[in-house]
Structures are given as structure tokens and as C-alpha cells.
Write a structure and sequence with these properties.
- The protein is α/β, with parallel strands linked by helices.
- It has one domain: 4-Layer Sandwich (Metallo-beta-lactamase, Chain A), CATH 3.60.15.10.
- It has nine helices and 14 strands.
- The chain has a seven-stranded mixed sheet. A seven-stranded mixed sheet has the order 8-9-10-11-12-13-14.
- About 45% of the residues are buried.
- The structure holds zinc ion.
- The site of zinc ion has 6 residues, from α4.
- The site of zinc ion (ZN) has 6 residues, from α4.
Length: about 300
């Protein structure tokens, strides 16, 4: 059963400030317009940034604000007749402060009925629970809903409760509810393959077992929608080896971050992070450490 207490136990606190719908930023060209929409934000304790670092070291690297605020950024790509969303926010049942996507779509002038595809990076609450409206119907009546088969199998399989700590059982219950609500509309995709013409899923597992990111070109540049492969604007870049509490498989998530940072830096990719302030930016490197430079 999902309760406020179980969410707090999972390290997720509510946002004190009122939620705000907004368009975070717009990129690309007229033909391939990328609009980043806010689903609001929430607060996380600093201690969740690393399982095994002293508190003083976390404060020194991440800043003193504890809890810190994390934004929730939903990417929308419009090209031709397609309106493609990457994840769909937290919906009404996660936390106060989130669930602003529908209002942000309105602010951007995007009609929910026009959404043609929703591509999921993973099935955590803040990415997946926004798929259903208040009546448990799909929020976008005309959309195809695509997720990686290993991710669907993990969250909807009957072993999920054995594979999760008790304080994450609410995440599984929620994923079951949303997957049931989408029913056969939820399509199973291979983790590393082209899901739509020109849009490739890149395996970035670790944060969750079937986590993927998405690579495509827009206005002549390579773009990658990261999901939660890189979540914190300083720690994920300067300390990819730290082990955040929210990663299911900590070692795999470290390996994923390292290879992703190399690729983003070497190929000058425009990176879009679901939880990165400002959402879009470049990965630069000073001496041994990477850093995120907002676009
Ligand atoms: Zn997330």
C-alpha cells in the first residue's frame, strides 16, 4: 500500500514551495522542436547521494542545502505529425509538488490528444505514474506507450517484492497499478534498439534493471535524453563512483555513468537530464573530473 510514510522512508520528501507548471526550455529547429516541460519538483535528503560517504564530504561536494530540491523535467519532441514524450511525470498520487505535466503541456500549447508516443526510460514513480489521469484512464488517449521489456518484467513480475527493500514496495505497487491501467497499450521493446525511426534506446541499466536513455539528432546535433542515468548536477558528474541510494544496482550504475560521461563528452552530445536543473547541457572535463554545463 502506498502511503506518505513509505515514500518518506524511501528517502523522498515533499516540496514545501507550491508546484509550478512551466516550460523549462525549448531547443532544436522548427522541424524538430524539443520542449522541456516541468512536472514540478521534490526534495531529497543529501544522504541519498551516497550510501557510504561521510555526511561532511557529501555537504562539501553537493552544497549545504539539506534536503536539496530536485526538478522533474519531461522532454517533448515534436517532428512532423509526431508528438513524442520521454517519460510522463509523477501524476496525482506521488508527492505534493509534482504532477504538473498536464498544466505544463497547456502552457506549451500541446494538446494531450495530439501526443502520439510516450517512451519510458524506466518505471519509477516520478517517470511512470503520470501515465493515468484521475479516472485511471491513459492521460494521452491516442498515444502508444513504449517501455523496455526487462524494465516491465522487473516491475510487474511476481518476484519484484523479493528483489526490493521493504521501503520500495510502494514503487512496485504503483508500477503494477499503472501497467494494469495501460494494459495492452504498454508495448515491450528491446532495451538496445531503435524504438522509433531515428530514436535509439541506449542501455543504461543500474539505476533500475531495465533503464534506457534515448539518442536522436535534432537540428544537426546529437541529443541524449538521459532519464536518471545522471541525476545530480554535481555529484553524478564529478563523482560518478559514488553510490546513490536510489540506484538499484549500485556497481552497474557506476559503470553506466562512467561510460555515458565519456560518450557525452567525446561526442559533444547535448545531454537532457530528468532531474538536472535547466535540464539540457554539455559534459565538460577539467583535469580528472567531469562537470555539467547548462546549455
Ligand atoms: Zn527520477
Amino acid at each position: 500500500m502506498l502511503t506518505r510514510r513509505s515514500l518518506l522512508a524511501a528517502g523522498v520528501a515533499s516540496l514545501a514551495a507550491p508546484a509550478r507548471a512551466q516550460v523549462v526550455t525549448t531547443l532544436g529547429s522548427e522541424a524538430e522542436r524539443v520542449t522541456i516541460l516541468s512536472d514540478g519538483g521534490f526534495e531529497m535528503p543529501l544522504s541519498t547521494l551516497a550510501r557510504d560517504m561521510p555526511a561532511a564530504e557529501i555537504v562539501a561536494q553537493a552544497g549545504p542545502s539539506d534536503p536539496f530540491r530536485t526538478p522533474v523535467n519531461v522532454t517533448c519532441l515534436r517532428r512532423g505529425s509526431e508528438v513524442i514524450l520521454f517519460d510522463c511525470g509523477a501524476g496525482a498520487h506521488f508527492l505534493p509538488g509534482t504532477g504538473q505535466l498536464a498544466a505544463s503541456l497547456g502552457a506549451a500549447g500541446i494538446d494531450p490528444e495530439a501526443v502520439t508516443h510516450v517512451l519510458f526510460t524506466h518505471l519509477h514513480p516520478d517517470h511512470f505514474w503520470g501515465a493515468l489521469d484521475d479516472f485511471d484512464s491513459p492521460l494521452f488517449p491516442n498515444a502508444r506507450w513504449l517501455a523496455a521489456a526487462p524494465e516491465i518484467d522487473f516491475w510487474t513480475g511476481n518476484k519484484v517484492y523479493e528483489r526490493l527493500p521493504a521501503d520500495r514496495h510502494a514503487f512496485a505497487a504503483g508500477a503494477h497499478r499503472i501497467a494494469k491501467g495501460l494494459g495492452e497499450k504498454l508495448e515491450r521493446m528491446a532495451a538496445a534498439s531503435e524504438w522509433l525511426p531515428g530514436i535509439a534506446a541506449v542501455e543504461t541499466a543500474g539505476h533500475t534493471p531495465g533503464h534506457v536513455s534515448f539518442a536522436f539528432r535534432s537540428a544537426g546535433q546529437e541529443v541524449m535524453v538521459l532519464g536518471d542515468a545522471l541525476t545530480h548536477p554535481r555529484i553524478s558528474f564529478a563523482h560518478p563512483e559514488w553510490r546513490p541510494a536510489s540506484d538499484h544496482d549500485a556497481e552497474r550504475a557506476v559503470a553506466t555513468r562512467r561510460s555515458l560521461l565519456d560518450r557525452l563528452h567525446q561526442e559533444r552530445v547535448l545531454a537532457i537530464g530528468y532531474h538536472l536543473p535547466g535540464a539540457a547541457g554539455r559534459v565538460e572535463r577539467d583535469a580528472a573530473a567531469y562537470r555539467f554545463v547548462p546549455a
